[in-house]
Every structure is written in C-alpha cells, then in structure tokens.
Amino acid sequence: MDFESLIDNNKLPRHIAIIMDGNGRWAKSKGRPRVMGHRAGVKTVRRITEACAKLGIEYLTLYAFSTENWKRPAFEVDALMRLLVETIHKEIKVLNKNNIRLRTIGDLDGLPARSRDAMRKAIRETASNDRMQLTLALNYSGRWEIVRAARAIAEAAREGHLTPDELDADRFASFLCTRDMPDPELLIRTSGETRLSNYLLWQLAYSEFYFTEIFWPDFMEKDLYEAIYVFQQRERRFGKTSEQLK
Ligand code: FPP
C-alpha cells in the first residue's frame, strides 16, 4: 500500500522519537560482524532524517547510545564512538544544506573527547538551522535525566529559587534535557522488541507506540509513512472518553 499518499498533512506528529534497534541481528542474519549493522544503521538515519524533514516533521529524536550501552564489548563501543565522529564530520554539510539543527540529549561529558568535541562542533555549526531539529540521545537514559532534574530542583530549592508547592509537571519538565521541545506524539521501535529501554520515560507519557519487526538497517521511507499513517488512525484521548472528544 502507498502509505505516503494516505498521510494527512494536517495531522502530522510534530515530534517523532525512534529506538533504532536490530543492527546487530541484521548483521548476524547476513553472516557479517555487528559493526556492519551499525554502519548500515547510519544509512537509515540519513534516509529517515531526510524523509522526516521533507514531510514537515519538526523534531526527530533518535536513541543512538544509552547509558547502558557501555556494557557492550569494548570493541563495539569503540566502533560506535568512531562511527559517530565519522558520521558527524561527513554530515554537517548535509545538515546545513537541509537546514537541520543537530542537538543532543544525555551526558556528553561522559563520551570520549573526540566524540564529544565532534558533537559540540556540529551542534555549534548547525545552531541557526530551523527546518527540523534532529536530536541524538547519546549517553542518555530516562532515569539518568529524571534524577539529574531532581538534583537540579533540590539545588534550586536550597538556593531559594523554588518552593515545593511551586513544583508541578510543567515546572519539573523545565529541568529536563528536552525543556524546549514538545513531547513526542509518536514513538517507533524497530526489530520486534516491545520495551522502552529507559528512553524518554517522562516525555512518552501520552505518546502512541508503534512497534515493527523490521530491523533498523532495513527500515525504509515507506515504513516510516506506514507508522505515521497508523498513528493518524489512533484516537488520542489523554484520559478523556471517546464521546468527550467529539
Ligand atoms: C541498536 O541495535 C542500535 C544501537 C545501540 C546503536 C544505534 C547506532 C547507530 C544506528 C549508528 C550511530 C548513529 C548515528 C546517529 C551516527 P543493536 O546493536 O542493539 O541490535 P541488536 O539488538 O540486533 O543486537
């Protein structure tokens, strides 16, 4: 089915979050090393970023490296970090040409210096682009982010900038890495896994989840269009009844 032509451009999600999963299994299924899967995964990042920008999606947030991914074999972690630097160097021009701003969420200070510096440079050099914001979650996890926010809130309270009764959900969210982004309306996870894996725990409270069996390297534009079409058929009630929405 041609899902692209079925998409209602007036009902696009503003923000799509993706858990890019299945690089390793994709490579294994072809008898190739896991790292080849990550390399193929980068091509999908490029493809899906471009497709989102063309559609008019404002925010795309990709889970690139979690705080738990350090537990992988050292050579795979090294390869991912190197791939990140290589990709960022290559893509800055393309991002600028397409007017896409690159951001990160997560603890950049915990990355190897080369990866951190490459990211900071790319963030600086794309800062004035305003067509779409591409955010890489790097050394990120939802619990890390929430604990970090709680610490900052405690600090603000200690310094007298905030009293406990002033704290509500909006104020809390203003301490998160995503403070200046809308929450994702749609979360996509590839590869058949149906977990959140510590991704955007606060922000996904009311998001629609879309799971597909397709491994990330095989995830094509048409699969993105299908996910968006399926999202558009859902009724988002935010706690209300169906009748109340009519
Ligand atoms: C999950 O597949 C993927 C990752 C942990 C890393 C995703 C990274 C990339 C696509 C490349 C770097 C990204 C950028 C933006 C330059 P997996 O390894 O968990 O696959 P498996 O579950 O099949 O083992």
Describe the structure.
- This protein has 246 residues and is of the alpha/beta class.
- It has one domain: Decaprenyl diphosphate synthase-like (Undecaprenyl pyrophosphate synthetase, 3-Layer(aba) Sandwich).
- Helix content is 44%, strand content 15%.
- It has helices spanning 3-6, 23-29, 34-55, 74-97, 113-125, 142-158, 169-173, 221-233, 242-245; strands spanning 15-19, 59-66, 100-105, 132-140, 186-189, 208-211.
- A six-stranded parallel β-sheet has the order 3-4-2-1-5-6, with helices on both faces.
- β3, α5 (113-125) and β4 form a beta-alpha-beta unit.
- α2 (23-29) packs across α3 (34-55), α3 packs parallel to α4 (74-97) and α4 (74-97) runs parallel beside α5.
- The longest helix has 24 residues, at 74-97.
- It is globular.
- 34% of the residues are buried.
- The mean pLDDT is 96.
- Bound molecules: farnesyl diphosphate.
- Farnesyl diphosphate is lined by residues 20-25, 38, 41-42, 45, 62, 64, 69, 83-84, 87, 136, 191.
